[in-house]
Design goal:
This protein has 529 residues and is an alpha/beta fold. The protein folds into three domains: 123 residues, Rossmann fold; 178 residues, Rossmann fold (3-Layer(aba) Sandwich), CATH 3.40.50; 178 residues, D-3-phosphoglycerate dehydrogenase, domain 3 (60s Ribosomal Protein L30, Chain: A), CATH 3.30.1330.90. It has 17 helices and 22 strands. The strands form four sheets. The chain has a seven-stranded parallel beta sheet, with helices on both faces. A six-stranded mixed beta sheet has the order 14-13-15-16-17-18, covered by helices on one side. Strands 2-1-3-4-5 form a five-stranded parallel beta sheet. α5 packs across α7 and α13 packs parallel to α14. The protein binds 1,4-dihydronicotinamide adenine dinucleotide and 2-oxoglutaric acid. 2-oxoglutaric acid binds next to loops. One of its GO terms (molecular function) is NAD binding.
Length: 529
């Protein structure tokens, strides 16, 4: 009698499911396409679920998933799985980030060549009985400049292939170091430098707050006349309306999309344009990639159901139950500290120094380091950071990680301190757990503070003098933003001080600018945790 039932959706490769089928205690059930209601009705029976991108694992699904322990994504992007709901229900989410790199890379190169030589349009004409040699004068790739935005697994694999095609590469990725790029023979550029020189532009980053509509009107306006753009990453990175406008007026000579803001999509106005080509999210659709990702995710589901450490966890680090009891309360604090610092620090980060003090000094702190590094890399990377790959992932991006323990905790029972070192300086933040495991930030760059790392926050270093706090408060009032909490820390009267504010809503660029202009305010940073 099988102990665990695993629901496999979205046509995941049957052959790749062998690791699940080999386990006598696991029963595999292949599900057909379901509506949310249908899924909600059956999910209560399952211990695990495997999906690609079609099935949406929503908070409602998790609410009804009383036995669910793990959801596996046979691929990289987990935007179809509600990670917060998964974490709240204690469900592990795992993915398979390596198996489809080559498939997505080759699809990108195929799109670039198809764009350059009008292959899809020529095929369509021939199939309509027209031998039209004149209409399709193409361009060569050799000697052209390819702008790559996002130099991760797929971006760098695209770069290597484009170099073999004798293209010049310029790349933008704020989270990798010059050295790392240089080792690939690539010079990093800013977007302002990349847009005007690139003949082709391809994007390879996750869809995040930062990358959403990165190629918008403003970006297209900066691009070279006759540019060709490709998106085989995520819909929404290119603003489709702006693309349409610039294709229509002729500045963009061609575009190839594998992904759309809304999917499935067969009614985009872009499809009416001759020089626009598209595929229905086929980047990962090769026999090899589908086998790879299915095997990876099936193995991870077995590991998770058997209580073992899992390779690619997306939401919570996978650790043994004994260690989990001790470190669990600190994971959230550590993740928040990492996320907080990622949004505060400026420049290219080269090192994270993490110090564990007080009660933590004798504990197994590695998972806490992982949670912290995960928090730090999360706003930047699509992929899973876990305690096997965290250090490696950071290292691949030129960031070294040092973990030390220290008995003294500055009067706190335990303390986690994260020093982030970048080419623009360093920033140190410490956090602790108050009663009932309540996470707090208690020190920023040596200034004592007591802030709850949650929701929307503002970090405002300023000169300690009258008429700072009042005007800041007034300004929020004028912009109709409620202040939920305020903390000020200083070392000496009249010197530098810092203010931490918790607010109930996101703060606009305009409000941030107005705060920065208040006399005595040195800087203002918005942080979302
Ligand atoms: N079309 C398809 O079927 C497939 C799409 N994908 C998508 O491709 C994308 C890239 O995947 P991987 O290379 O495996 O991920 P990765 O995590 O290895 O690389 C992402 C890169 O984007 C960079 N990045 C993050 N924020 C950035 C920003 N604001 N500006 C510039 N760069 C930024 C990161 O530093 C990182 O180097 C993901 O969105 C993934 O979901 C992946 C596989 C198949
Ligand atoms: O499973 C698929 O076909 C899509 C893969 C993908 O987009 C990803 O891995 O991020």
């Amino acid at each position: 009698m099988a102990m665990y039932k695993v629901l496999v959706m979205d046509g995941v490769s049957e052959k790749g499911l062998e690791p699940l089928r080999n386990e006598s205690e696991i029963e595999v059930i292949i599900g057909n396409k379901m509506t949310e209601d249908e899924l909600v009705a059956v999910i209560g029976e399952y211990d695990a679920m495997v999906v690609r991108s079609a099935t949406k694992v929503t908070p409602r699904v998790f609410d009804h998933a009383s036995r669910l322990k793990v959801v596996g994504r046979a691929g990289v992007g987990v935007d179809n799985i509600d990670l917060n709901a998964a974490t709240q229900h204690g469900v592990l989410v795992v993915n398979a980030p390596d198996g489809n790199t080559i498939a997505a890379t080759e699809h990108t190169i195929a799109m670039m060549l198809a764009l350059a030589r009008n292959i899809p349009q020529a095929v369509a004409k021939m199939k309509n009985g027209v031998w039209d040699k004149k209409a399709f004068l193409g361009v060569e790739l050799r000697g052209k400049t390819l702008g790559i935005i996002g130099l991760g697994r797929i971006g760098s694999a695209v770069a290597r292939r484009a170099q073999a095609l004798e293209m010049d590469i310029v790349a933008y990725d704020p989270y990798i170091t010059e050295e790392k790029a240089e080792s690939m023979g690539i010079k990093l550029a800013t977007l302002e430098e990349l847009f005007p020189v690139a003949d082709f532009i391809t994007v390879h980053m996750p869809k995040t707050k930062e990358t959403y509509h990165m190629l918008d009107e403003r970006a297209f306006a900066m691009m070279k006349e006759g540019v060709r753009v490709i998106n085989c990453a995520r819909g929404g990175i290119i603003e489709e309306e702006a693309l349409y406008k610039y294709m229509k007026e002729g500045k963009v000579a061609g575009a190839a999309l594998d992904v759309f803001e809304k999917e499935p999509n067969t009614d985009s106005p872009l499809l009416e344009l001759n020089n626009f080509i598209a595929t229905p999210h086929l980047g990962a659709s090769t026999a090899e990639a589908q086998l790879n990702v299915a095997v990876d995710v099936a193995e991870e589901i077995v590991e998770a159901l058997q209580g073992k450490v899992v390779r690619n966890t997306v939401n919570i680090p996978s650790i043994s139950p004994e260690v989990m009891v001790k470190v669990k309360p600190y994971l959230k604090l550590a993740e928040k500290l990492g996320k907080f610092q990622a949004q505060l620090v400026e420049g290219r980060v080269t090192k994270l120094e993490i110090t564990f003090s007080g009660d933590l000094a004798g504990e197994e702190v590695k998972p806490i380091t992982t949670a912290l590094v995960k928090g730090f890399l999360d706003p930047i990377l699509q992929e899973t950071v876990n305690f096997i790959n965290a250090t490696l992932l950071a290292k691949n991006r030129g960031i070294s990680i040092a973990q030390t323990v220290n008995g003294r905790a500055n009067g706190y029972a335990s303390l986690i301190t994260l020093k982030v070192i970048s080419d623009k300086g360093e920033k140190t933040v410490s956090g602790t757990l108050f009663r009932d495991n309540d996470p707090r930030i208690v020190m920023i760059d040596g200034y004592r503070i007591d802030a709850v790392p949650e929701g929307y926050m503002l970090y405002v270093p300023h000169i300690d003098k009258p008429r700072i706090i009042g005007p800041v408060g007034m300004l929020f009032g004028e912009h109709n933003i409620n202040i939920a909490g305020m903390q000020v820390g200083r070392k000496e009267v009249g010197g530098k001080a810092i203010m931490m504010l918790s607010v109930d809503a996101p703060v606009s660029e305009e409000t941030l600018k107005a705060i920065a202009e208040i006399d005595g305010v040195q800087e203002v940073k918005f942080v979302s945790l």
